[in-house]
Amino acid sequence: MAKEKPDLVYGTLDMLILKALQYDPRHGLAIADRIQQMSNDILHVEQGSLYPALYRLEAQGWIKAEWGVSDNNRKARYYKLTAAGRKQLSAEEEHWLRITKGIDLVLAGG
Amino acid sequence: MAKEKPDLVYGTLDMLILKALQYDPRHGLAIADRIQQMSNDILHVEQGSLYPALYRLEAQGWIKAEWGVSDNNRKARYYKLTAAGRKQLSAEEEHWLRITKGIDLVLAGG
DNA sequence: ATCCTTTACCAAGACTGTCTAGGCATCCAA
DNA sequence: TTGGATGCCTAGACAGTCTTGGTAAAGGAT
């Protein structure tokens, strides 16, 4: 059997996470759930991709973490966007639009 | 300085190459040129990405290679789509549309 | 009380695809 | 005869995702 393509487009997870945090802070699994739900179940975020991405983003200063308690009364690490994160999000959206436009032009057949 | 994003969306090169070969056989550099041109200079394909991709595609049986002579009278390896390659192209386009729709839904803000 | 399931976080290593940075051969013009 | 342009090619670094494993705590069921 052929190997399946990943559930994500490589390199877009950071943008998706920032977007999921745009309006409210959330904890890790809630971010993954939110992305899946916002995408109408098209996208699926594996935990093994999620947590490394969260560290990346935090290390870049785009999100900030804080321990809290989830709706289910469990210890959870809440992330929220920083000002730099908002800037980054808008830069990534712009980049995404630009590149996908390029790809769409190619697919449209020149 | 921040690191620049790549000129391509990781994982889309195979699709772009297949698309560039959809109507005519071409040699390697001409494929890269064609993608760049079709995308209005938005996308740029490095040789170090191009050739490995061509081997991949040939190994999968999606393209077939043959030595020839370029317009500039140079030895060049011409690639053309196979029947399986056409199928693959359409599968990849479908997958691309699906995933980008998911991403666009997320970006639209849920 | 004890177990089981669910929630939540985390890590190690494999894998894949792109990029950087080289190199070789040939053609043609200066 | 030298140098630029064309065309193919490779090795190794690198980044991001996936697979697979784990821990801990809450809450319900037995």
Structure report:
2 copies of one chain form a homodimer. Chain A is an alpha+beta fold and 110 residues long. The first copy, chain A, has a single domain, classed as Arc Repressor Mutant, subunit A, CATH 1.10.10.10. Helix content of chain A is 53%, strand content 15%. Chain A has a 3-stranded antiparallel sheet with strand order 1-3-2. The longest helix of chain A is centred in the last third of the chain and has 26 residues. Chain A starts with 12 loop residues before the first helix and ends with a helix. The model of chain A has no long low-confidence stretch (mean pLDDT 93). Chains A and B meet through helix 1, helix 2 and helix 4 of A and helix 1, helix 2 and helix 4 of B. The first copy, chain A, binds a DNA duplex (30 and 30 nucleotides) through helix 2, helix 3 and strand 3.
Structural class of chain A: alpha+beta
- The helical percent of chain A reads 40-55%
> Average pLDDT value of chain A?
93
Q: What's the CATH topology name of chain A?
A: Arc Repressor Mutant, subunit A
The helix count of chain A comes to 4
- Gyration radius of chain A, to the nearest Å? 15 Å
- Runs of chain A with pLDDT <50, length 5+? none
The separation of the N and C termini of chain A measures 33 Å
> Sheet with the most strands of chain A?
3 strands, antiparallel
Strand arrangement, major sheet of chain A: 1-3-2
